[in-house]
Specification:
The chain is of the alpha/beta class. The protein contains 13 helices and eight strands. Helix 5 links the parallel strand 4 and strand 5.
Length: about 300
């Protein structure tokens, strides 16, 4: 299956991303982004109960026949109040709330927001998703993996149809571990997030916060390739994603202009493949504290 693009919507419902300087987009800007995405073959939107007002905004802007597949995630606190029955009920309530906000009778895919929820409380949340799929409320079910460890465990778990994972030119741990090949073997649809490392990879090396200083050397090398070919850094990062990840890449954008630039980067050759390969081979392995935004210092 050739790589494709989906539009991430965390920025639509809250301020998100270390490089976000504009905040949440306006209604008019969202409409421009969606029109552009539809015209250029982007077929999916990724959201979550935890993304602020994102689901509500999608429901308002997309009133009418669905032009995009919609992937959402169960509220992260669905398993935080003990008891199997409670976890099952809260999972169902989370999906029902998503449907109301999205103004849909059914949703294309629902993921557990954390890998630990797959087996937590005796698998109650997963059981609820199985029931919702059987009832026709949800087409496909899966999990958003927070870490490489979770992704490698979940790709072998029974019944999973969709996985969302972090991966990029700067974070090649799953590629090295054979995750993407294994997912293809098992027929699991994969969405890849954080190809820009939540925007950190687009910053000038000197603008990185001290806690991410270990990124500087890698970003200088990536920028060197971009400057040599007279393309933005995003071109280099997306060339790698298209060439090596073979999955649906999630792009979060705050404006139609940003989306247009990213679409051009993904669609175009940008940088010769052999140079992308050489660049990837030259980059050092980075510590988990740099690659996992959840571990970044506030």
């Amino acid at each position: 299956m050739p790589p494709s693009l989906a539009l991430g919507t965390a920025q639509w419902g809250m301020r998100y991303g270390i490089a976000n300087r504009t905040g949440q987009p306006s209604r008019a800007e969202l409409e421009r982004m969606l029109a552009l995405a539809e015209a250029r073959g982007v077929t999916a939107l990724d959201t979550a109960r935890a993304y602020g007002d994102s689901e509500r905004i999608i429901g308002e802007v997309l009133a009418g026949p669905a032009a995009f597949r919609i992937v959402t995630k169960v509220a992260p606190d669905a398993l935080e109040r003990g008891g199997v029955g409670t976890a099952r009920d809260r999972t169902r309530q989370s999906v029902e709330r998503s449907l109301r906000l999205l103004r849909r009778e059914r949703v294309d895919a629902v993921l557990l927001h954390r890998g630990e929820h797959f087996g937590g409380e005796g698998g109650a949340a997963w059981s609820a998703l199985l029931e919702l799929r059987a009832a026709g409320v949800v087409e496909r079910i899966g999990v958003s993996a927070a870490s490489v460890r979770e992704a490698l465990w979940l790709v072998e778990a029974p019944g999973i149809e969709v996985l969302q994972v972090p991966a990029s030119l700067l974070d090649r741990r799953l590629s090295r571990a054979g995750f993407f090949a294994r997912a293809r073997e098992r027929g699991i649809e994969v969405f890849v997030r954080s190809v820009f490392l939540q925007g950190a990879a687009l910053l000038e090396p000197g603008a990185l916060p001290r806690s991410l200083s270990a990124l500087e050397g890698s970003l200088h090398r990536v920028r060197g390739v971009a400057e040599r070919h007279r393309v933005p850094v995003a071109f280099v990062l997306l060339c790698y994603a298209r060439r090596h990840l073979g999955s649906t890449v999630l792009l979060g954008c705050e404006s139609a202009a940003q989306l247009q630039a990213n679409l051009l980067a993904f669609e175009g050759a940008g940088v010769p493949g052999e140079e992308i390969d050489a660049l990837a081979a030259s980059l050092p392995e980075l510590p988990e504290g740099v690659l996992d935004p959840a571990l970044w210092a506030g």
